[in-house]
Amino acid sequence: MYDLIIKGGKIIDGSGNSWYPGDVAIKKGTIYAVGKVKKNAHETLDVSGLIVTPGFIDAHSHSDLVLISEPESLIKIMQGITTEIVGQDGLGEAPLTDDNVDMWRRYLSGLNGNPDLGWEWRSFGDYLKRLEAARPSVNVASLVGHGNIRLAVMGMDDRKPTAAELSKMKRLLDESLTEGGIGFSTGLIYPPCVYADSKELTELCKVVAAHRSIFVVHMRNEGNKLLDSIDEVVSVGRDSRVSVHISHFKSNGRANWGRAPQALAKVEEARKNGVDVTFDQYPYTAGSTFLGSLLPPWAHEGGLDILLTRLRDGETRKKLASYLNHEGDEGSSNEWNRILITNIRTNQNKRFEGRYISEIAKELGKKPAETVLDIVLEEENSATMATFTMDENDVRMIMRSPLGMVCTDGIVLGKPHPRAFGSFPRVAGHYVREGVLRLEEAIRKMTSFTAQTHGLMDRGVLRPGLAADITIFDPEKIEDTATFENPIQYAKGIEYVIVNGKVSVKSGKHTGERAGRILRHTNA
Hints:
Elements: E1 2-11, E2 20-27, E3 30-35, E4 41-46, E5 51-54, E6 56-58, H1 66-69, H2 74-77, E7 81-86, H3 101-107, H4 109-112, H5 124-134, E8 139-142, E9 144-145, H6 146-154, H7 163-178, E10 183-187, H8 198-210, E11 214-218, H9 226-240, E12 243-246, H10 260-272, E13 277-281, E14 286-290, H11 297-300, H12 304-312, H13 314-327, E15 339-343, H14 357-364, H15 368-378, E16 384-388, H16 392-400, E17 404-406, H17 419-433, H18 439-446, H19 448-453, E18 470-473, E19 494-499, E20 502-506, E21 509-510
Parallel strand pairs: 1-4, 1-5, 6-7, 7-8, 9-10, 10-11, 11-12, 12-13, 13-17
Antiparallel strand pairs: 1-2, 2-3, 5-18, 14-16, 15-16, 18-19, 19-20, 20-21
């Protein structure tokens, strides 16, 4: 007997091929048969009229700590996600050293939160073991953060590494990949990653290429210098022979609306020239990150406490305010009525959540730039924001590219960007019904393509012998419900989610099963 038979659904197997009617049989966490299944099972799910797909894979997640403190992972599993890829933007949770763990914990609190955890791990392998001990509802794979590697060797210094330091970074990266990292990530707008040049990245990526792993990069600029930034990461891929994956691909800033065709052409040209380049995307016109990322890189040099000292200094504040007013994000003036505060740590400022900088500044009787500086200071750089900087036509054009996949990039703090709760149903529902994608292609972008790109070769397709991660939904009802005004809402239409053969969501409700596994890179 099988453990479970999923009977009577429309199967979209993840390959991009058209749906077909059939059943799926599962035993011991593995898919045993797909098609017409005649044997009996301990449990049978009649899913007539529903779509049966591989479990969705979140290509860019910030659940690094939430998966330990809240292992049910309801935010993700309730939208059909069965695997999360963490360690993004070069800002992971390991490796760490004793002398930088406290600063790093505070520094990342606006991205990954700061739950009441012991942070007893130091090596990358120990971090994966801590995740494993939490028994999350979803599978987890983790990238090794460039920021962690640089911090351990060079601290938060804005300079090039010495030959000895570069050698030490390469050894630490090699150890972390050997301990199970599926790739290497960097965030070239975030300290200390921003202080690295292309030569440093290329040398580190040679280690990644030797492991047959992937280089995941938040590019140096997604706005006025978007094309130059694509050239930079392509050159790293070419010179190190590593596969390059661009995070949250976009054309950012009103002055750059309509540049998606040029950006996509750059990626396609790189592939024609033999460089493996792919990207992910969240399906919204607003981004989200630290409020403090509006500040120039030099403000962050030396770490969090030095940043806060600079913010208290009158002359430095004048320079920073001038930068915010005249340089702004990526070289264009900030639009204060399009910057929404999404997370505040302190009680005194909690009322700012869900409000725009222009509105807050008016209430306080301050200029917007001064308001930003005060919030970053008072919140110790833990405040986050959503920025409405993209054009819907660009979003749709990028979504149509076969080189892209789906992610949430979900920061799950405060009143978060709704992408954390709704990205995958939004693509499978709204954008499929709008005719932007065929449903089969949307599913490929959520499953097999992500698995293939990140080396997760035992899942992502409904095939016998692969892991039984499966999402089942109603194609007429699937819909994201999270909004910027009310973001903490689960999607509609997700009926069943199965993780490693265990039914974790049934009739739209979590069953309490926590069957996720830690997916370590195996060079396979």
